[in-house]
Amino acid sequence: MSLTIETRHLETVIDNHTRDMSGKVVAITGTTSGTGYVCAREMAKLGATVLLLNRESERSASSLKELQEEVPDATFQAIECDLQDFESVRSAIEEIKSQFETLDVLCNNAGVMAMPDQATKDGYDVQMQTNCISHFLLTNGLFPLLKKSDEGRIVNHSSQARLGADLEMKYFEKRGGDLGGDGTEKENSSFKGPRWYRYRQTKLANCAFTYGLIEKLEEQGIDNIKVLLAHPGLAATQLQVTTAESGGMEADSDLMQNAQSPEDGATGIIRCCADPEAKTGDFYGPEQWVGFPQKLEPEDSLSDPENIRINWEGCEAAVGEFEF
Fold first, then answer.
1. Which CATH architecture has domain 10-318?
2. Which of 24, 37, 124, 203 is labelled catalytic?
3. Active site (annotated) includes residue 203
4. Model-level pTM?
């Protein structure tokens, strides 16, 4: 898949919707490519110390080198964090807490899409654990550092796939590999079937986590942390490549011919991380598949009480009570 797509909106977002991030510490999951890589690069250009949370691999080492070459005066720090392994996430939390007293931004960016029906080593669906439950765990573990920031930000990444059926508790349970199978080639190529249903559950879960966390912060009287949401629209990133490799979609589908660049796909999370006008609950992304990252009106399902309850109870059952 070609990534040589004209970038139309990144410069405008950087010029008009970001602030100086000097002295800030920003942690981002999934920075080896795509939106996470772009966000890490731009936060560094704005002066932030950027923590790169990825699985240890040749890709993560190579992307770190590329970031250092693109922003030579910046401070990047690689933190090993495998979202498909709760033990690895907990180790990453402890490593960050041992080195930093304060965290200003946590960007829960990483995700997988339309993966086979398989369990992680912890027994959960690979998509739900990667995209949602591990980010819940990471946010909980780093919450004490975010509370120490003058203005902490928690940024969650959803997608257009958030639109669909309400959450079901079974997708949060320890039953990975027993959640509908892999679907047919026809289903996968048309973005239907069980793979895509599981993916949509995770993207709605990220929204329910966002608005559920806002409610709970209000109940606790915590007002120095903003919780924000973004979606990238249709962006040509490594996410589609890995999905195609596992049989989840066609690598060069007609739909992807209309995608925007990874840089423009990252503009929503960039606004969440650095827009001085951003307020808790703001949702940024293109109005449709591509376009400028507008402030959007979240659909009712994103803050539906039952969706919030299922997400919160499901995540806490998997990784423990969220401690404020």
1. 3-Layer(aba) Sandwich (3.40)
2. 203
3. yes
4. 0.94
171 is catalytic: no
Could you state, in chain order, the average pLDDT of each consecutive group of 10 residues for the chain (324 residues)?
78 98 98 98 98 97 98 98 98 98 98 98 98 99 98 98 96 98 95 97 98 98 98 79 52 64 97 98 95 98 98 98 98
Sheet with 225-230, strands from edge to edge, namely 75-80, 49-54, 25-29, 105-108, 152-157, 225-230, 283-285, 294-295
Domain boundaries, the chain: 10-318
The one catalytic residue among 197, 199, 211, 284: 199
Query: For the chain, how many residues are written?
Result: 324
Residue from 102, 9, 97 nearest 48 by CA: 102
